[in-house]
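R.M. (postdoc): so does anyone remember the format we settled on? I'll just put the structure tokens first.
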């Protein structure tokens, strides 16, 4: 959508529900649109509007387009909570030069829950002609009840292998390439070219025709309770890292950097891994980079910025993370997408200094990250929203018209600093792949 493009006119009608919907059961089995954690979240059914963005100005362009659409929309919303009324879900690419599209999607039907409040929103295209007004009662038809959920379908599962790189005779070449990249990153850091470089690698598989994607989504939602489980335009995952939450003038974020693999079946060894993370100067140093990058990016947009006094250990089923929570108040009328654009890319997914780290990633990673380590989340008509960094995730490709098979590519990485060991960094990526490989398993 450009400045010359006509602004779509939408009508959103929200009505409260008197019972808790099963959001996961309502999702489309082949193309789910979901945002879910515990007793909060939403599911989209159908699609009323899709906006596409590319390039270095994708966040700014999206924020501008959404502000115009929200201003032109007719919203009937007695619920009046963040995430009710007109809502779009979106996913944004990591790199300015990425071939992957960044999108905002307005679902035709949105069923949502916030703790003990539930609602349903229908969004339709409003009449274009002046004076052509639809009957408002027609817009609320069908909103008294939730659409019928679909029974779970088949899930043969996915076997992941290291991604085949161009020119590699064997898939193992991608592992060797990653290890070489870590060594080169350490050398550049020792020469002073950067302080931290986040390097990722990829694995890939195939999703069989007719597979019900709600199966891996349910596994993620049930196992990773402290994460947002999401599915937007084929981007599926469970992220532990809140990039930004902006509601009614209050802003919060969670920064994760520094990782140790869990040993859930060996409590003493697991506690040792946690303690090593908390006392590691390397991990604390890496974490401090990440926190400072968020503080610096947010400062122009907020006031009363607060952070945790010390990093704390965040326990997930697969890893321990060093975590810091931040809170603030908006100092100006910035939408959630504008805040995302100000923050991205953080040191947690790129490195420090940002420009040098991003340039190194483009040179050392032999693939386009796509939407991995970008942003995924939602925004409403007031500009409120919640966005996470797209981590512990996989991107599905287009469906093969002949076989019905879809490719799926998962990505995971870690922060390289002085003293990083390639084999240790590789092991960290294995731990970070676990949420996806276990969720997609047969």
């Amino acid at each position: 959508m450009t400045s010359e493009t006509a602004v779509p006119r939408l009508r959103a009608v929200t009505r409260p529900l008197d019972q808790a919907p099963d959001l996961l059961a309502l999702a489309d089995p082949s193309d789910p649109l979901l945002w879910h954690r515990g007793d909060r979240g939403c599911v989209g059914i159908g699609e009323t509007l899709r906006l596409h963005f590319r390039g270095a100005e994708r966040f700014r362009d999206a924020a501008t387009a959404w502000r115009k659409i929200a201003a032109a929309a007719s919203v009937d919303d007695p619920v009046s909570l963040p995430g009710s009324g007109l809502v779009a879900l979106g996913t944004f690419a990591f790199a300015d030069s990425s071939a992957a599209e960044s999108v905002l999607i307005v679902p035709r039907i949105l069923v949502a829950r916030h703790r003990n409040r539930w609602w349903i929103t229908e969004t339709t295209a409003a009449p274009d002609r002046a004076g052509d007004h639809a009957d408002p009662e027609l817009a609320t038809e069908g909103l008294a009840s939730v659409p019928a959920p679909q029974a779970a379908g088949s899930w043969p599962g996915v076997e992941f292998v290291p991604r085949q790189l161009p020119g590699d005779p064997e898939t193992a070449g991608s592992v060797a390439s990653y290890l070489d990249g870590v060594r080169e990153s350490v050398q550049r850091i020792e020469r002073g070219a950067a302080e931290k470089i986040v390097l990722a690698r990829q694995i890939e598989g195939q999703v069989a025709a007719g597979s019900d994607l709600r199966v891996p989504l349910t596994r993620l939602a049930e196992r990773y309770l402290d994460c947002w489980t999401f599915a937007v335009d084929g981007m599926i995952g469970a992220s532990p890292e809140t990039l930004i939450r902006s509601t009614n003038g209050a802003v919060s974020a969670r920064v994760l950097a520094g990782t140790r693999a869990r040993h859930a079946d060996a409590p003493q060894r697991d506690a040792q891994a946690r303690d090593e993370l908390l006392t590691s100067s390397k991990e604390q140093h890496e974490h401090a980079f990440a926190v400072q990058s968020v503080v610096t990016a947010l400062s122009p947009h907020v006031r009363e910025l607060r952070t945790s006094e010390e990093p704390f250990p965040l326990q997930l089923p697969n890893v321990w993370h060093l975590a810091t929570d931040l809170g603030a108040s908006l100092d100006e009328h910035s939408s959630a997408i504008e805040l995302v654009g100000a923050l991205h890319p953080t040191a947690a997914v790129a490195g420090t200094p940002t420009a040098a780290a991003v340039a190194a990633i483009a040179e050392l990673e032999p693939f386009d990250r796509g939407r991995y380590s970008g942003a995924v989340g939602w925004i409403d008509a007031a500009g409120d929203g919640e966005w996470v960094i797209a981590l512990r995730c996989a991107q599905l490709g287009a469906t093969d018209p002949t076989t019905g098979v879809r490719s799926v590519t998962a990505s995971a990485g870690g922060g390289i600093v002085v003293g990083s060991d390639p084999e240790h960094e590789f092991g960290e990526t294995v731990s970070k792949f676990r949420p996806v490989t276990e969720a997609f398993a047969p």
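R.M.: ...and that's the designed sequence above, right after the tokens. Also worth knowing: The first strand starts at residue 10 and ends at 17. Confidence is low (pLDDT under 50) at residues 129-140.
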